[in-house]
Amino acid sequence: MPTLDRSLIAGLSGFAGLSGEALDLILSSARSARYPKDAEIFSQDGEATSFFLLLSGHIRVVRTTPAGDQLIARYINEGELFGIAIAMGRTTYPASAVAAVDCVALSWPNGAWADLQSRVPAFGASAYQTIGTRLQETQSRVMEMSTQQVEQRIASAVLRLVNQSGRKTAEGIEIDFPITRQDIAEMTGTTLHTVSRLLSAWEDAGIVKSGRQKVTVTDPHALMLVSENRRRK
Amino acid sequence: MPTLDRSLIAGLSGFAGLSGEALDLILSSARSARYPKDAEIFSQDGEATSFFLLLSGHIRVVRTTPAGDQLIARYINEGELFGIAIAMGRTTYPASAVAAVDCVALSWPNGAWADLQSRVPAFGASAYQTIGTRLQETQSRVMEMSTQQVEQRIASAVLRLVNQSGRKTAEGIEIDFPITRQDIAEMTGTTLHTVSRLLSAWEDAGIVKSGRQKVTVTDPHALMLVSENRRRK
DNA sequence: AGGCGTATTTGCGCTGAAGCAAACTGCAGG
DNA sequence: CCTGCAGTTTGCTTCAGCGCAAATACGCCT
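^ Those are the sequences you sent over. The predicted structure of the assembly is below.
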């Protein structure tokens, strides 16, 4: 049974080149679980008891303000670590994680963290790099939010989605999981109405094709130009 | 000479409780330097060769978009680590650091990182916690930017500044370094005009006193209420 | 095939905050 | 003391994008 997981993990960037021994060590303390679509894997402000690695599927990470506004912080793709509050010395999760589609994930109890980190340094390094990347991305988003118009922000968000979670189809690159206008609005801090209008406009311009809970980018280059168009000075 | 630094460091949170031996180890590879006001300590996209600890003063961390917009990512206070790209496995700095006032900082060559981390685990842990805190803060800022009105954002920014870098005076709590309307605008993604208007309004309401490159909050509680006022649903 | 709930589209009016323009003020330097 | 400049204030205009409302459209379930 661990055989399946082993080959899966060995294929992940960040774990490539690990010895079989190290992999066994990593897997011996892990537990695998299925999460059906819309299942909540952990919840915001809940006690952080485990950390996770997504084997398959897509996960939506959502933050809720005290006032009740939701914001989609990011989507987790296959092969990514998530819920690693422990690595940052935190005791609660800063966001909720919800399966965007049926998912399979490995999880470790927090107690395994120190052990894994010291016995498999590459594992710790990988985690810290994940965090660094995420900090970088988040800071870019702040910049985007403060300097870009809504149209550019939405274009960037859609591009990010197709780059990270795109699946090639006959018509173009399609986002690999069901996503609503509302979701995109919650990623960019706008309203589903504005998102809908812009997608329609892009569809008229032949840049995207979209349907119910589905977005396909037919002309990524054109969309990139949209995302780069500067606010008029 | 290291004596001065030792007592300074020993007083910092995150370093409290370290043995004298550990402190000596940390300091032996460090070098101390003065940076006059407006000096650039490192620059965005420059090769990351060192990491730093601010001993005294305040540092402004600035990001610039390809299009030339500036955004103040944060201010560094005394006792904080900064420029720790190495801890995240990065080779360039994602932002520039400029002395907001005359500063003194310790720096280590990147080569010292692995050594320090393995020989003084508390040092590494402190760095990772710093990063975690910063990620958390940054994520909060994204939320703020996407859900709050300009007035609330500016109120939050000012509150953050007085909480983290406030100095008590007869009139209230004053931000401890020179800060312009433009600076506050660049923290919140607005314009200096809007910032000026709001500060004036708050001054009329008796919440703040402000002058040239100076902001004093006389009624923090009232400002907090402003920052919490919800967007009308 | 029909019905239903959820997701999407689209029109319209309003307003917060940006853009533009101009006047004012406090401080540093001569 | 005077001058100049950087920083600040304030009025007016404009418009991107939100709130509101209503009409469709799609897919699922029976």
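Chain B has a mean pLDDT of 91. Chain B has eight helices and twelve strands.

Shout if you want it in another format.
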